[in-house]
């Protein structure tokens, strides 16, 4: 199932705005209702964060962005959409009223979901005319990066609605977790609340500060949790004997008075003041937007690292990338294309993890950009996934010149000029430009050899590919030869 064409969102705060970003950047049109007069500004800032994060997360290009419309009523948000997602504050009566109004306006086949983090779906649907199409779809912040979404039906939710929702949210690159029984707080937040209660006691009793509690998680178990979770971690802790040995060894400790999970300290003004002061110290003067940017940068790095091992959230990302790649229509040469200038086939942005200790993009990233440009060129020549089963161009030689620094946030574009070709070889010259001032940052001269990928030896390219190469080469023959083409490395005396 492909992503929905249009959705209606009720609420555009932290969670609703995150949903808007995931939908819009996935190519879905969004109709958003939010009475906050600052909603448009706040959502615009969140979208900038999401564009930056998702643009760096995957090598697969994002689809064309969906259209965002602000509407005056919940009913207007529910008209002409495939899904209504409610993300209002956690007040039962407010959510019930919004969902009931949306239910009246929505078409008969429209799914209606709430982002609530703990209210039961049966209670939320009490005022709805058709509660069988309603469920909870509880995401995690930031919604546009974290893949988990908990799906929980109410007493009258139809089973097929849960399945439709599972497929729909999966099409967005998410990992749906169907909650087997209706329960307050669902699965994840029940565990998180237990940890939160204990954290409050540790600060309240003077055992640790807020920063020390956070260090205990982020420097220890939190690193394991991102790819192993709880039970697999404990299975490994049991050694070769496994989970049974762990339970026998550590199970009795559950009866020891280590935690206060059934109790919570009084949230006195003094305790709140202490926690606020410690939290302010942790922030080190950084604004919420700066902390969100840091969070996104770190999550992108973690997700990409986990993708390399095809585990946890990384496996979800890898699967979604494959689905996106299957639907990507790379530009292929058309008869009316203007070939009188160097080709402009690739652009990107200098991401935080590209920058080295010198404050500019590491030299390996320049080669990455030129490699991505080569892939775009091959696609332009008609080398698609089916063609790759039998043949492709392989890079056999590269001469890269660094002229100026590429700095964090710089928007980059690459132009490509074909210098020479024959049935097996292709000689090109790439130029890397900074878009803001048209500064030439680097060049790369490359020679490709066409290879029979089954036989693993050089072979002529297909006739259709060679015809496109010929057209480009003939058009580019009238262009001035790049100044740095043909240069070699030497020290002049």
Secondary-structure blueprint:
Layout: E1 6-10, H1 14-25, E2 29-33, H2 39-57, E3 68-70, H3 74-78, E4 83-86, H4 92-105, E5 111-114, H5 121-124, E6 134-138, E7 148-153, H6 159-170, E8 175-178, H7 188-204, H8 210-228, H9 231-237, H10 242-250, H11 269-283, H12 288-308, H13 313-327, E9 343-349, H14 363-380, E10 391-402, E11 411-421, E12 425-434, E13 439-452, E14 457-458, H15 463-476
Helix pairs in contact: 1-2, 2-12, 9-10, 12-13
Characterization of the model:
- There is one protein chain.
- It contains 15 helices and 14 strands.
- The chain has about 500 residues and is α/β, with parallel strands linked by helices.
- It is globular, with a radius of gyration of 27 Å.
- It folds into 3 domains: about 5-190, NAD(P)-binding Rossmann-like Domain (Rossmann fold), CATH 3.40.50; about 190-310, N-(1-d-carboxylethyl)-l-norvaline Dehydrogenase, domain 2 (Orthogonal Bundle); about 330-475, Thiol Ester Dehydrase, Chain A (Roll), CATH 3.10.129.
- Strands 3-2-1-4-5-6-7-8 form an 8-stranded mixed sheet, with helices on both faces. Strands 9, 10, 11, 12, 13 and 14 form a 6-stranded antiparallel sheet that branches.
Secondary-structure arrangement, i.e. CATH architecture of the largest domain: 3-Layer(aba) Sandwich
Query: What order do the strands of the largest sheet run in, or round the barrel if closed?
Result: 3-2-1-4-5-6-7-8
In total, the number of strands is: 14
Radius of gyration: 27 Å
Shape category? globular
Might you state the CATH topology name of the largest domain? Answer: Rossmann fold
How many helical elements?
Answer: 15
State the helicity in percent bands: 40-55%
Overall SS class: alpha/beta
The fraction of residues in strands falls at 15-25%
Under the CATH scheme, which class of the largest domain?
A: Alpha Beta
Order of helix and strand elements from N to C terminus: EHEHEHEHEHEEHEHHHHHHHEHEEEEEH
| Number of domains as seen in the coordinates | 3
- What is the residue-averaged pLDDT? 92
Span between termini: 65 Å
The biggest sheet, with number of strands, parallel, antiparallel or mixed sense and barrel status, is: 8 strands, mixed
């Amino acid at each position: 199932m492909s992503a929905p064409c249009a959705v209606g969102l009720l609420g555009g705060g932290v969670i609703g705005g995150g949903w808007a970003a995931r939908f819009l950047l996935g190519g879905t049109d969004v109709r958003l209702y939010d009475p906050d007069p600052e909603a448009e500004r706040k959502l615009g800032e969140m979208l900038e964060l999401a564009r930056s994060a998702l643009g760096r997360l995957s090598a697969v290009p994002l689809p064309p962005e969906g259209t965002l419309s602000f509407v005056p009523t919940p009913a207007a948000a529910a008209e002409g959409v495939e899904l209504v997602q409610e993300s209002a504050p956690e007040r039962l009566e407010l959510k019930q009223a919004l969902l009931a109004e949306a239910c009246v306006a929505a078409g008969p086949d429209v799914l209606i979901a709430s982002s609530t983090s703990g209210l039961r779906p049966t209670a939320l649907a009490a005022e709805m005319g058709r509660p069988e199409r309603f469920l909870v779809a509880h995401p995690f912040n930031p919604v546009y990066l974290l893949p988990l979404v908990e799906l929980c039906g109410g007493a009258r939710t139809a089973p097929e609605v849960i399945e439709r929702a599972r497929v729909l949210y999966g099409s967005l690159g998410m990992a749906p977790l169907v909650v087997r029984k209706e329960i307050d707080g669902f699965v994840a937040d029940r565990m998180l609340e237990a940890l939160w209660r204990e954290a409050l006691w540790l600060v309240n009793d003077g055992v640790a500060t807020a920063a020390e509690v956070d260090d205990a998680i982020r420097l220890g178990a939190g690193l394991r949790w991102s790819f192993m979770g709880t039970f697999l971690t404990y299975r490994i802790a049991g050694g070769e004997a496994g989970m049974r040995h762990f339970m026998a060894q550590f199970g009795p400790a559950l009866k020891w008075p280590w935690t206060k999970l059934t109790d919570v300290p009084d949230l006195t003004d003094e305790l709140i003041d202490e926690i606020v002061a410690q939290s302010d110290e942790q922030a080190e003067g950084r604004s919420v937007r700066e902390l969100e940017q840091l969070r996104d940068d770190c999550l992108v790095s973690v997700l990409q690292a986990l993708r390399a091992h095809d585990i946890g959230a990384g496996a979800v990302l890898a699967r979604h990338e494959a689905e996106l790649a299957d639907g990507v229509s790379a530009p292929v040469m058309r008869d009316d294309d203007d070939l009188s200038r160097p080709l402009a086939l690739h652009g990107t942005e200098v991401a935080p993890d590209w920058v080295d200790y010198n404050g500019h993009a590491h030299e390996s990233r320049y080669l990455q950009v030129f490699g991505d440009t080569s892939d775009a060129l091959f696609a332009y020549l008609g080398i698609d996934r089916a063609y790759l089963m039998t043949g492709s161009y392989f890079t056999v030689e590269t001469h890269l010149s660094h002229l100026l620094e590429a700095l964090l946030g710089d928007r980059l574009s690459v132009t490509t000029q074909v210098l020479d070709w024959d049935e097996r070889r292709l000689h090109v010259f790439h130029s890397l430009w900074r878009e803001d001032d048209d500064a030439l940052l680097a060049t790369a001269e490359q020679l490709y050899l066409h290879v029979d990928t089954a036989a693993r030896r050089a072979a002529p390219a297909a006739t259709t590919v060679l015809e496109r190469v010929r057209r480009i080469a003939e058009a580019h023959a009238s262009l001035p030869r790049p100044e740095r083409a043909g240069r070699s490395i030497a020290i002049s005396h």
